[in-house]
Write a structure and sequence with these properties.
The complex is a heterodimer of chains A (448) and B (298). Chain A has 2 domains: 318 residues, TIM Barrel; 76 residues, no CATH class. The termini of chain A are far apart. Chain A is of the alpha/beta class and 448 residues long. Chain B is α/β, with parallel strands linked by helices and 298 residues long. Chain B contains 8 helices and 12 strands. Chain B has an 8-stranded parallel β-barrel. A two-stranded antiparallel sheet of chain B has the order 5-6. Chain B has a two-stranded antiparallel ribbon with strand order 7-8. Classes of the chains: A alpha/beta (448), B alpha/beta (298). Chains A and B meet through strand 4, helix 2, helix 3, strand 8 and helix 9 of A and helix 2, helix 3, helix 4, strand 6 and strand 8 of B.
């Protein structure tokens, strides 16, 4: 980990009383979740959701997050078999958790491209009403036609217009939550409706934003209460905080009105060496031979199963098509720069003498791991929060029992000792946990 | 069709101006009184005399964690939603309720409902065709993960068997959907599909709702008659499988639970669901085998 500058320029002043805000991003996809351990609970089972959410509530977390992905990931047209897959509808699952938890925030990732705006606003308002003010919406865009194949309109939205639609959907949702009649006719959206869900104890659902493009950052600066940021390396996090706060101020809001929670994976050990060893194991498991071959097959667009993951990179040429999004959403750069990328990998593998598996491990970012003893991680997080580099973290656990127990039983007490994490909930709403003011709440509307 | 073995009870909670607490209490009370099913009415945009109404699927999920035996059937409208979302939400309800999920097929065709999603009012024939496609697609999507698709095979590094998760490749007049569902197969395989006889899709339903009990013989499905809280339903034993009450007020709901249901139990007419069983089991319905597993075996 990089050392913290004495005065990082984050666009906000040092605050020795700053409090950390913590969420857990419950896994639905991806190689980082260890399914190979027989003691790892089934991440799709209803009882696991309840167990994890209730445990996090004991740890006084701000929020429990569910992700979104409206098409099951594939590898060359077949369902991807190496990683966990399968997830419930986020709002349905969170509504089921709302009646067996009392305080923790419940945040649903929902996309603005394929969702019907009035239906989405109404379902989020419903979750907010049932949970008595604990709902949040993590706003994402999905523009690829591959996902669109599951929806009435197909892949209808041009990539460069995805945030235009997102902004319109968010503005419409805010109107809906304020109890105002909706009347919208643009080339991206048609919706006319009278709301029929009451305002909750927090006014409206809290808005989270996760995209890191310029459009995403502007949407966050203009409308979001919290960002779920991808900038988890120190230098990136400082630059991101400064950039977001500049944008936020430009929209006439307080520069630090938007809470910044980068996504990280926490790995704790009794000693620094033990934690480091665990990270090494997690990374090598997430990039094992089978996964490394599948990863390259996605880029090559060819069957590479005959290649030895411990041997050199495939000598055959990749197919010349753009990279498809079937392994997950890709930026435009990643979609079009495929052949150059492969050339860079070939050079790197040859310079360093790397096998397929070693190359894939080498090019996979490790910055999301925050590891060490509980005291080390708590010390670092306390400094990051007080320097206003971040306002907290959204933690992606690698294991749904051990990984969660570590957070609640070890990291939370260490943070509490440093006075940076609450010792009891002081609010009943997600808005209250996050310490958000009411500037954007529908405060003029009568709560039910 | 009726099994002639007492009556199954259902109650419709339309959700109008209902608080979360009242919702929870009503469903718990209905479960205790021996009801097999609660249905949840819904409207995307307000109907007359309605201040507010929380989304039915969300209400059903909310009470799925605080009940253990009663079936939960939200109304989800077909013409004004995305069929893929609909199928995912209902499969998820079946998971959160451990196999007590049901769906009352809705076909709200008011212009106000269409205006909310930017579509047009349909004619009667088109409604039937589209509702049929949505139900057909939902059942295909619920089959798209075979029961044993998740294998967690450490020897080969495979979490799932890709040959047991299927694209459904539905192509219809109104929409095309590739699939598979994002949600693994739910405890009941396919949730219990309920709809009114006049939808014209009785062959795709598990329970047909009728106004006139004497029409029950026309259907080779389970039949529930919509009845009034003040009706004497004892004569319907052997005529229909169940009855659904629609209390118009909190007082009527209280009367139904405190007086009507106990009286039917006393008279030996009430067929109680058994705890720990799925809704299908309590209705005497088989659990469907995934059509894709059947195809693979042939």
């Amino acid at each position: 980990m990089s050392t913290i500058d004495s005065h990082p320029d984050t666009g906000a002043a040092y605050d020795e009383n700053a409090q950390i805000h913590l969420g857990v991003f419950y896994p639905g996809i991806g190689a980082q979740t260890v399914w190979e351990d027989p003691n790892a609970p089934d991440q799709v089972a209803t009882d696991t959701f309840v167990e994890v959410a209730q445990k996090l509530e004991r740890g006084l977390f701000d929020a429990f997050f569910l992700g979104d992905g409206q098409r099951v990931r594939e590898n060359r047209g077949a369902i991807l078999s190496t990683d966990i897959a399968g997830r419930p509808d986020a709002i349905t699952q969170l509504a089921a958790l709302a009646s067996v938890t009392e305080r923790i925030g419940l945040v649903a990732t929902q996309n603005t491209t394929y969702s019907l705006p009035v239906e989405l606003a109404r379902r989020l308002a419903s979750l907010d009403a049932l949970s008595e003010g604990r709902a949040g919406w993590n706003i994402v865009t999905t523009d690829n036609a591959w996902t669109g194949e599951n929806f009435r309109r197909g892949g209808w939205l041009a990539h460069e217009r995805r945030y235009e639609r997102a902004t319109q959907v968010v503005e419409l949702a805010k109107q809906y939550w304020a109890g105002e009649k909706i009347g919208s006719d643009t080339d991206l959206l048609t919706a006319h409706a009278t709301p029929n869900v009451p305002a909750s104890a927090q006014g409206r659902p809290i808005l989270f934003q996760a995209g890191d493009s310029t459009g995403g950052r502007d949407l966050a600066a203009r409308h979001a209460d919290v960002v779920f940021s991808a900038n988890n390396a120190y230098d990136d996090a400082v630059a991101y905080a400064r950039d977001l706060r500049t944008r936020t101020a430009a929209f006439g809001r307080a520069a630090d009105a938007v809470k910044i929670l980068p996504g990280v994976t926490v790995v704790l050990g009794d000693t620094p060496d033990e934690a480091e060893e665990k990270v090494r194991w997690l990374r090598s498991n997430a990039h094992n031979g089978v996964r490394a071959i599948a990863f390259l097959e996605h880029y090559w667009g060819k069957d590479l199963s005959a290649y030895d993951p411990e041997g050199p990179l495939p000598d055959i040429d990749p197919v010349d098509s753009e990279l498809d999004p079937s392994r997950g959403t890709l930026s435009i750069d990643a979609r079009t720069g495929k052949l150059d990328q492969i050339e860079r990998w070939r050079k790197l593998a040859s310079d360093k003498g790397l096998s397929i598996r070693e190359l894939v491990l080498e090019v996979s970012p490790a910055s999301r791991f925050h590891s060490g003893t509980p005291a080390q991680v708590a010390d670092r997080w306390t400094e990051l929060v007080r320097h206003r580099v971040v306002d907290g973290f959204n933690i992606n656990p690698y294991h749904l029992r051990d990984g969660i127990d570590d957070l609640v039983d070890k990291l939370v007490p260490a943070l509490q000792e440093r006075g940076v994490h609450r010792t009891e909930y002081t609010s009943t709403t997600l808005r209250g946990h996050l310490g958000l003011d009411d500037e954007h709440a529908a405060s003029d509307r009568k709560a039910s | 069709m009726s099994t002639g073995n007492g009556l199954l009870l259902a109650v419709e909670l339309n959700g109008r101006n209902e608080s979360p607490r009242a919702l929870k209490e009503a469903v718990t009370a209905a479960e205790r009184a021996g009801f097999t099913l609660v249905t949840f009415g819904d409207a995307l945009v307000p109907e007359a005399d309605e201040e507010y109404r929380i989304d039915a699927g969300t209400r059903a999920a909310f009470v799925s964690s605080t009940t253990s035996t009663i079936g939960l059937g939200p109304t989800v409208h077909t013409l004004t939603t995305e069929p893929f979302f609909l199928a995912t939400q209902l499969a998820s309800l079946d998971h959160t309720s451990h196999g007590r999920g049901a769906w009352v097929v809705g076909a709200d065709n008011r212009s106000a409902a269409h205006d909310a999603v930017g579509t047009d009012v349909r004619d009667a024939d088109a409604i039937t065709r589209e509702v049929r496609d949505v139900v057909d697609l939902a059942r295909r999507l619920w089959d798209s993960w075979e029961d044993d698709a998740v294998i967690r095979d450490t020897a080969t590094g495979r979490y799932l068997d890709p040959d047991k998760v299927h694209h459904v490749r539905f192509e219809g007049e109104f929409f095309d959907v590739v699939g598979p569902l994002i949600t693994p197969r739910s405890p009941q395989g396919q949730i219990v599909v309920i709809g009114r006889a006049d939808l014209g899709i009785a062959d795709l339903l598990d329970i047909v709702l009728v106004d006139d009990p004497t029409s029950a013989a026309e259907h080779d499905r389970l039949v529930f008659a919509d009845v009034s809280v003040t009706d004497d339903v004892s004569p319907l034993v052997g005529v229909v499988d169940g009855v659904r009450f629609t209390p118009a007020s909190a007082e009527e709901l209280g009367d139904l639970i405190d007086r009507v249901a106990p009286a039917l139990a006393e008279a030996g007419v009430l067929r109680r669901p058994e705890p720990g069983r799925t809704l299908r089991e309590n209705l005497g319905l088989d659990r469907p085998v995934s059509r894709y597993a059947v195809t693979a075996q042939n």
